[in-house]
Each structure stands twice: as structure tokens, then as C-alpha cells.
Amino acid sequence: MRRFGLNPNFFYNLEKIFFLVACKNRLLTDTNLSKQNKNSMKKLFSLLLFVGLVFTLQAQENTLLWKVSGNGLSAPSYVFGTMHVLCDGTIAENPELVAAWEASERLVIELNPADPKLLQEMQQLSVNPGFANIYMDLPEADRQLLDSFFTENFGAGLAQMGVLKPFVLSSMLVTTYLPCEEMFTLEPHFVELAKAREIEVVSLETVASQMGIFDEIPQDFQVEELVKTLRDDKGQEEFANMLALYMSGDVLGLYAQMIESELLQQYQDLVLDNRNLAWIPDLEKLFSQGSSFVAVGAGHLPGELGVLQLLRDRGYTVEAITL
């Protein structure tokens, strides 16, 4: 039996991994619609969103790396879309990506995994208030399902694991989808490179602000997503598809899949939009101080309120770099 353990990078990636879990679970959920109508409306809605996305990106190349210049900048900066759980670092070896990295004077990421306080803060914020256990509110069938899964894969059942917040449990679940023993995470990789070059590492967010996102999302919703993912026997296949989209540089395809998720349908402002808007003033300040290499989740790049369009709206030239 394959048994999974948790390393520090798991806690660093909690918010990002849960986002992948929720994006895998699709909707529509209106119980007044027949199954056929739900499928038809879903396809139409997804098509309209995807068409809008393509126009928003101004038919530019479909890529993960973008050059930001103009608007008075003395040197260009670069924006790279990451996926937070990979099996290897092949993409980090791409010559165009390496060139952009080497041309930059600082690294800008969502959170700095090298911060000595980060792991402790994340662990503290991963536990339900008062160590309340979610099994208290679960139907018996769901309780047994979760208990069996965590016992088999992590060596501890719901009696122990249930004190963790639901999004943490969902993040643990998705690590079992990886077709490899160890996770590769891009942000810690770039932090190590930054240390070697002795360049500055800047965080766009704090642990409290990032983890606090899920305190604003009802626990019932998070538990429902967790159970839904476990009951979906296509979970591993769909997750593999997301990985394939990312590794091929298909940010449009990845985003199109993301915006179909119930998470984004209900909470896109919390998970993406508000954060993107908050980052722009900080990015502008950093760009004005010299070339920066920005590495944030790929889901933050596209869309009308995505980082790329927001930078265009501020007068910058944003150009695709094909990887």
C-alpha cells in the first residue's frame, strides 16, 4: 500500500492545492433543471465564457510566460504562471523561462516558503477553531468514506484528521492523485535559485490573508467539495488532464476548466479577483524599481480581472513569450 506523508511544501501549497481540487468539481447544480438541460446550459455557458476569455487575451499566444514593459519602465519584468503541484521540474528548465529569470533582479511570489514563520503559522491556521471535528456533522456514509480514505492513505482516520479544516483535507486528497512519490513545487525552486543569486524575494500576501480566504467560504461547501471529489471515480483522470494542460503551456485551456468550477462560480472574487486587484499596486512599485520575475498561480493570469489584463489597463505592454 502506498502511504503518503506531508512535507513542508504541502503546507506551503494548501491554498493552491485546494483550488485545483475545487476546479475539478464542476457544476451546474440547479436541481430544478433536468440532467439534459443542465448539460446543455453548462456547455453553452462554458462556451460563452471561453469566447470572452479569448477576446480578453486579445488573441495572443497561449503561454505561461509574459513580458511586461513600457509605461516608463527602465527594464522589462516577467510574469510566469505556476501550477503548484508537479512531479518534476522540467518546465523550469525551459530556455526562455531561464532567460527571463536570469534577466530579473528580484523574485516576486504569493508567499515565501523560506520564511521561518510560515510553516508554523500555516499549521496553526489549518486547524478548526476549538479543534472541532467535522465528523460531528457528517452523514454516516460520508463519515465512513472519509475515515477509510485517510486511514488507508495517511495512516490516521477521521477521529484525528477531522480537526483539520476541510480545505486542508481536500489538499491532502489531491496529493494522492500525483503519479509520483514526491511533489515538485516551482516557488520553492525559484526561492532556492534566488538565494544562490543573492537576490531579493518579495511576498505579495501573508499567511493569514491567504488562509483567511477559506474562513469566508462556508465550511459546508468545503466539506461537500471534499466528499464530491472522493466519490468521483474520474478524479485522478481529470487532475491528470489539468497537469497535462499546464505542462503543455495551455493557460487558456486550464483557465477554461477552472471557470467551470463551482468554487469560482460562487467565490471568484475571493479566490482570484480581489487578490489580483490588490497585487497590482505592489507590482507597479516593484516594476519601477527594476526587473522582477513574478511567479503566481496560472489561474491568476487570464480574465478581465486577471493580472495580465489589469497590467494592460494600467498602460503596460504585456507580450507573450512562447515556451
From TrEMBL:
Signal peptide: none annotated. Pfam families: TraB_PrgY_gumN. It comes from the Bacteria. PANTHER family: CYTOPLASMIC PROTEIN, CYTOPLASMIC PROTEIN-RELATED. This is Gumn family protein. It comes from Nitritalea halalkaliphila LW7.
